[in-house]
Amino acid sequence: MHSNHLQNGIESDNLLWSRVPDSDDASTDGVGLLSSPRDGGGGVDSLDYEVIENYAYREEQAHRGKLYVGYYVAVKWFFSLLIGIGTGLAAVFINLSVENFAGWKFALTFAIIQKSYFAGFIVYLVINLVLVFSSAYIITQFAPAAAGSGIPEIKGYLNGIDIPGTLLFRTLIGKIFGSIGSVGGGLALGKEGPLVHTGACIASLLGQGGSTKYHFNSRWPQLFKSDRDRRDLVTCGCAAGVAAAFRAPVGGVLFALEEVTSWWRSQLMWRVFFTSAIVAVVVRTAMGWCKSGICGHFGGGGFIIWDVSDGQDDYYFKELLPMAVIGVIGGLLGALFNQLTYYMTSWRRNYLHKKGNRVKIYEACIISCLTSAISFGLPLLRKCSPCPETVTDSGIECPRPPGMYGNYVNFYCKTDNEYNDLATIFFNTQDDAIRNLFSAKTMREFSAQSLLTFLAMFYTLAVVTFGTAVPAGQFVPGIMIGSTYGRLVGMFVVRFYKKLNIEEGTYALLGAASFLGGSMRMTVSLCVIMVEITNNLKLLPLIMLVLLVSKAVGDAFNEGLYEVQARLKGIPLLESRPKYHMRQMIAKEACQSQKVISLPRVIRVADVASILRSNKHNGFPVIDHTRSGETLVIGLVLRSHLLVLLQSKVDFQHSPLPCDPSARPIMHRFSEFAKPVSSKGLCIEDIHLTSDDLEMYIDLAPFLNPSPYVVPEDMSLTKVYNLFRQLGLRHLFVVPRPSRVIGLITRKDLLIEENGESSAVELQQSTSVRGRYSETATRTDAGRPLLDDLLG
């Protein structure tokens, strides 16, 4: 009997499953299997963004009045406030720690090199090595999911993919302290990407009430149980991370909209903007509090923001060509960077990192020693230059006294009136090096030879460092690389157009934007971020120009950096546009290789347990039979819901006959079916069933989704792809062409007021198509008003 039920309906109804390879193919294609990790899957799982409108959900909604809805909305706004405060404080702590570690390191090194450069190098190397070792040790031993920038993982989460460990409390701790060690240790990476991951972790932990594993949790904030609500919170956290990193609240909102989210709505926009504004207030307050000097080296520099408002006032038509050239260079170097990091990361994952955590720590320490040797040793080989006479007029001190870092660093110079231009950008924090490259009124501070040397070495270090077992962002290294060749182009433009008022720092800014656009392929959000962090709105058209050019050039070669890294990590992202060959395919062709297992409405407990053990599917069509023997698909039941039913046992029944769901009390709250955010939900092996339990039955009707999304079998795969992605679906039914239509919904059918009446009073008839075309319908259609035609 059971086998007949399983085979019934398979030929007539198909289920469109996510198109990802098996776990055996994952090792070659770099794509994981969408199944539960504990069930032996490939490590990632899909999220249920669709609202399961079963009887438990409808019963809860029926008991919720307007007061509860108001409370629910108020809690969402309150959580947005907490996310902004938490992310802002985390960013303040990270920046304060990094700036103080870097300040103490350079102050001590400058003090020692007055007596011995070799001793200064040893101290410099040891401090960097200790910081990087601590970061790598934290990541490998405590929080492996905190390695890298975290943006590909968060982008995958908001795309509908749940990766175990991404949003845990230990990942948050590892991200914060690991970023302090890796950035403070002078590696060619930044803390901006990890701050996005940090904000997402804070948002997720607030939504689930803290961490149960570390006994740091509370029950009252556990209001957001569904993946849909957690997605909104994580989106707020991503925007807060960017706003905290760059002090760019508008840029944070646009970054979340353009780069990481696959689904957006106006209500979410308001909360995301509010969260970013709170972050900006927290950061500004902290920096104002630290200006008195109580925060050590943090305060004057601290958060990366480079004011170039006193730079070039205007630009000329003749400059557009070299600026476009900067965009081309940025696209080429950005695409090359993506490809090289792809090869390096692939080699690490397939060979080096398979040798264990100890090898990962050794690798990070070796790269730290190499970076320290290059940043300290190369300036020693560079001949110092005399301070220019125009520096005194600009108010910039030349050279900097020992123990200070900024423009015109005196490093291994014979006289006190000289500076080392290579040490000015190499032997400096990345934030101050960028500030030096962006600086105005410092014409000819850097030689072309020094800029080329720094570009080649830092580009190589950035490629080699990206992918190590430490938290690593690519915003600041990308700005460093781009501003270097941008300033180099600016030097040639100044020499070519001798009479124009041109600043080399302006071209450095455009170079930074071009490299980020060529590597990350962001446009609108990156443009706003660059304007916010430079405080110069006049450069907006030029930044737009180089971003458009660099993105177009980069797209001609490969994907963006985050998409490449997501593919390497086995995150099956659904991109914004379907593949071209999907236009020639239909839905039936896409799911022909999928085996669908249907369940009868009333099923034995033993059969449910057997099905869950024998396959890894996460959703099952539920079928029923009419009195005439016709097979009907009545809905979709999720694997996680079946496991909850087996675990509780309160819905078991002795009779194999169905019961009326409306007359039967629901023994479960809808929130009980929610999956934990840590992806460690129930597993069939964890459930103990007695022999008596196995002989009982379950009526699945009250717990299934009675209205899953359905598409006809001949729909183009492009339309299926867009529907699946934009609605954030996990399952999609593919059914034969329907035989009849019971109605047609148009725009005016959805314009309903709260009292249930249509808002368009003048509309005389619904455009819904009825089963029969009566004479009355014919007469009414003849006199249909013009407004009805417009709305239909």
UniProtKB/TrEMBL annotation:
Task: Tell me which species this is from.
Answer: Brassica rapa subsp. trilocularis
Q: Which Pfam families match?
A: CBS, Voltage_CLC
The CBS domain covers: 592-652, 704-761
The name on file for this protein is: Chloride channel protein
- So what family is this one in? Belongs to the chloride channel (TC 2.A.49) family.
Report the SUPFAM superfamilies cross-referenced here.
CBS-domain pair, Clc chloride channel
Q: Which residues cross the membrane?
A: 68-96, 116-139, 233-256, 268-287, 320-341, 451-469, 475-497, 509-533
Subcellular localization is given as: Membrane
Q: Which domain of life is it from?
A: Eukaryota
